[in-house]
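User: Batch of two.

Assistant: Item 1 of 2:
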Amino acid sequence: MNKSIILVIGCLAVAAAADYYMESQILETTEMPVDVTDEPTNSPASYVDDDLSAKVYSFFYKVKHEESENDYSHAESSDGKVVKGKYQVQLPDGRQQTVQYVADANGYVAQVMYDGEAQYPEFKPARTSRISSY
């Protein structure tokens, strides 16, 4: 019993010392990081990106998760002027949709293709029960 009381008192002492230390550090380092004027300014913050040139890039990812029936992928690349890509997705009706696209100064052109045949399960109406009136 005495050991647990001593332990609790020790923990409280450490917590109090940590609070005191943190407060003293905050009081010593409270300087304004920027100039604050009495005049409010309504001008928006300025952001300048000097390099507006198109970037060269490429990426690819694929997800195939049997349990959730997720199956899709996407690949894209750019030479800085033309973007080319392809993505595939497994549709709920069993078909796979593939989209190949090109985007350049003339716009976006996509070719959409479907593999497989759509499968629709037989419709079974839900069983209804009579609701008694009050």
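Item 2 of 2:
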Amino acid sequence: MQPKNTVNTQRLLILLLLVAYVFSPTVFNWMVSPNGVWYRPFLVWLLVIVIAYLFQGRSQNGQ
């Protein structure tokens, strides 16, 4: 049986993946918009890195 913390992390990860799947067309269109600023794609990658860091920190604290 898995620890409760691992199950909660997996549920959160599945929810985030579902939200990313639903909103990916909108985010992609926003990123590549010719009227946008040059650093928009970098904002998306920064968000991905921050989320990965938070998940990593949370999983290390639980072990």
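The mean pLDDT is 79.
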